[in-house]
Amino acid sequence: MKVLIFGDIHGYTGTSDIPTVDVVMDIVKQVDANVILQVGDMGGYRNFSKPVHWIYGNRDSLSLMEANKKGESPYRNLINIGTGEVLTFCLEDEKISVSGLNGAYDPLSYDFKRENLDDLGYFTASDIEKCLTLRNIDIFLVHGCPSGLGLGREPDHAVPAIRMILEKVKPRYMFCGHAHYYRKAEYNGSMIYTLDEAKKEYYILDTNSGEISVEKIDPSTIGKSTHGV
Predict the structure, then answer these.
(1) Taking residues 29-55, what's their average pLDDT?
(2) For the chain, what is the domain count?
(3) What is the domain extent for residue 95?
(4) Would residue 228 count as lying in a domain?
(5) Which residues 6+ apart lie within 8 Å of 37 measured at CB?
(6) Residue 176 domain-assigned?
(7) Do 170 and 59 contact (CB within 8 A), yes or no?
(8) What is the tens place of the pLDDT at every residue in 74-99?
């Protein structure tokens, strides 16, 4: 199965006044992928041509989070993965499971009860507990990365609570937003990737071979019909 994955999308391309989400829209339309995922901080929202499954980051819209909770999302094919929710994707004889944790780490929010914290852009201890019971997960999405592996600044980017998920759930792959650069590590049978911003590159995972390709976006093509595809 081919999985298309984007890092943080919020903001502009840096070489023009084009929102990064518009570049992402073109890539989604052009790349032949079976599953499309995004790791939070989308920032700009659009109707996509294909289903895009994503988690919230700390810079996503509170009003959109509220609309999603009510089942009233105004955007076509933009689908939030609930914290601890497991989605199953099938292609012929292959099946993969995907889950995630919504929000980034904030010590001021972490000990709140989830029912007392409306902002899903930050996770709580109870959100972590909900994820720790998961098993047999192929892909787990987080907005942050596990601590202790040299993947990010601690404790705001690289977080002990996310390390707990890595150790207990043992996903085949963990894809991490928030840090804005590409790094990878292997831990206890899991491959962990921190992803750069979508204005610079995107990623394609082949779940059969386990290979992940880094597809650079040529700034000179932004605003034209193709974007390094």
Answers:
(1) 97
(2) 1
(3) 2-221
(4) no
(5) 3, 4, 5, 6, 52, 53, 54, 98, 139, 141, 175
(6) yes
(7) no
(8) 999 999 999 999 999 999 999 999 99
Q: Residue 173 in contact with residue 140, Cβ under 8 Å?
A: yes
Residue 90 lies in a domain: yes
Beta-carbon count within 10 A of 116 CB: 7
Q: How far apart are CA 83 and CA 106, in angstroms?
A: 16
Cβ contact 99:112 at 8 Å: no
pLDDT at 226 over 50: no
> Distance between CA atoms of 199 and 175, rounded to whole angstroms?
17
Average pLDDT over residues 30-58: 97
Exposure string over 22-52, b if 16+ CB within 10 A, otherwise e: bbbbbbbeebebebbbbbbbbbeebebeeeb
Give residue for tokens 């201890």: 125
What pLDDT is recorded for position 229?
Answer: 41
Residue 103 reports pLDDT greater than 80:
yes
Interval 134-151 mean pLDDT: 97
Q: Give CB contacts under 8 A, 24+ apart, made by 28-32.
A: 28/4, 28/52, 30/226, 30/227, 30/229, 31/4, 31/204, 31/229, 32/2
Residue 47: CATH number of its domain: 3.60.21.10
- Res 146: pLDDT: 97
Query: Does residue 129 lie in a domain region?
Result: yes
DSSP reduced 3-state for 37: strand
pLDDT digits (tens, 9 = 90+) for 194-210: 999 999 999 999 999 99
